[in-house]
From TrEMBL:
CDD domains: RfaE_like (cd01172). It comes from Paraburkholderia hiiakae. Residues 37-326 form the Carbohydrate kinase PfkB domain. PANTHER family: BIFUNCTIONAL PROTEIN HLDE. One of its GO terms (molecular function) is heptose 7-phosphate kinase activity. This is D-beta-D-heptose 7-phosphate kinase. The keyword Kinase applies. Its EC number is 2.7.1.167. The gene is rfaE. Keywords: Kinase, Transferase. InterPro entries: PfkB_dom (IPR011611), RfaE_dom_I (IPR011913), Ribokinase-like (IPR029056).
Length: 334
């Protein structure tokens, strides 16, 4: 989409206040990315997909009858973030809570297949979160969620494990899906920053006080509006984000804007990366890919702006895939 086609309420061109990030980015050697050590902490889930055909309507209710012919399990939530980091060749660790059940065991299997180092706290009373999607001809017909909140004692054990893992990782990535796994997120951020680590947060909800002091926060437009309200122009957006950043002591804020690309706000100014002109197939999990790519690049020693440019390219690739997916090294730098 061209800048002149930007929908309301963002009528002012993005470039009015921002410096454009050039689409050309340098190739980062695999060996450099392999030195990046990212610890992902947050809410994990199992994304279950049931694929089938619809040939009739149920006689019991006016709903389609799906004849399921194929099933597929994928990592979701923070587990998908860690999988994205590992796909780029980084050392990816995942600290999370899962249940003592079949979905929990399936997550363990998938993490092992994805080369993610799993640091799991097991809660025997917790049903592992499942997002079950029923699809026909690549169209989602229904989603069914199974979820609950981890026990307080398990979360305290997870915090203690975080303390032990902190020294062996360069970047801390907190992936919040509001399932209770980041109850102690404020303490985690404070501990990580005190240790000199970069802390990236994928936020949820309207209480961002809990993320105070993060290095980078990566909301989408809807998530940011929930916190700062609706902006009337790019100037208004800039003012609201600047106020928010300074109040909550965020070093930077990366706003993902779907078909408009993404905009980075920091004390150094505003930079914008226009979206790659690719066919959008499925946007689910694109935010996971963005924050994972930025984290990997920061861990490899790249400047934040370069990390954002590469994350923008990765997002353009992953939205062309069905469901939660990853972008590997060859795809990113081809």
């Amino acid at each position: 989409m061209s800048i002149s086609q930007t929908p309301q309420p963002e009528a002012t061109p993005v470039t009015a206040l921002a410096t454009a990030i050039a689409p050309e980015v340098r190739v980062v050697p695999r060996e450099k990315l392999a030195t990046s050590r990212v610890l992902v902490v947050g809410d994990v889930m199992l994304d279950r997909y049931w694929f089938g055909d619809v040939n009739r309507i149920s006689p019991e209710a006016p709903v389609p009858v799906v004849h399921v012919q194929r099933k597929e399990d994928r990592l979701g939530g923070a587990a998908n973030v860690a999988r994205n980091a590992a796909a780029l060749g980084a050392h990816a660790g995942l600290l999370c809570v899962v249940g003592h059940d079949e979905p929990g065991e399936r997550i363990v299997e998938l993490l092992d297949e994805s080369n993610v180092n799993a640091y799991l706290e097991r809660d025997p009373t917790l049903p592992t979160t499942i997002k079950l999607r029923v699809l026909s001809r690549q169209q989602q017909l229904l989603r069914v969620d199974f979820e609950n909140t981890p026990a307080h004692e398990i979360l305290l054990a997870s915090l203690a494990r975080f303390d032990a893992l902190l020294p062996t990782h360069d970047v801390i990535l907190l992936s919040d899906y509001a399932k209770g796994g980041l109850t102690h997120v404020t303490q985690m951020i404070a501990k990580a920053r005190a240790a000199g680590k970069a802390v990236l947060v994928d936020p949820k909800g309207d209480d961002w006080e809990r993320y105070r002091g993060a290095s980078l926060i990566t909301p989408n437009r809807a998530e940011l509006r929930e916190v700062v309200g609706t902006w009337k122009s790019e100037e208004d957006l800039h003012a609201r984000v600047t106020k928010l950043r300074r109040e909550l002591q965020f070093d930077a804020l990366l706003l993902t804007r779907s078909e408009e690309g993404m905009t980075l706000f920091s004390e150094d100014g505003v930079v914008h990366a226009a979206a790659d002109a690719r066919e959008v197939y499925d946007v689910s999990g694109a935010g996971d890919t963005v924050i994972a790519t930025v984290a990997v690049m920061l861990g490899a020693g790249l400047p934040l702006v370069e990390g954002v440019a590469l994350a923008n390219r990765a997002a353009g690739i992953v939205v062309g895939k069905l469901g939660t997916a990853t972008v590997n090294y060859d795809e990113l730098f081809q």
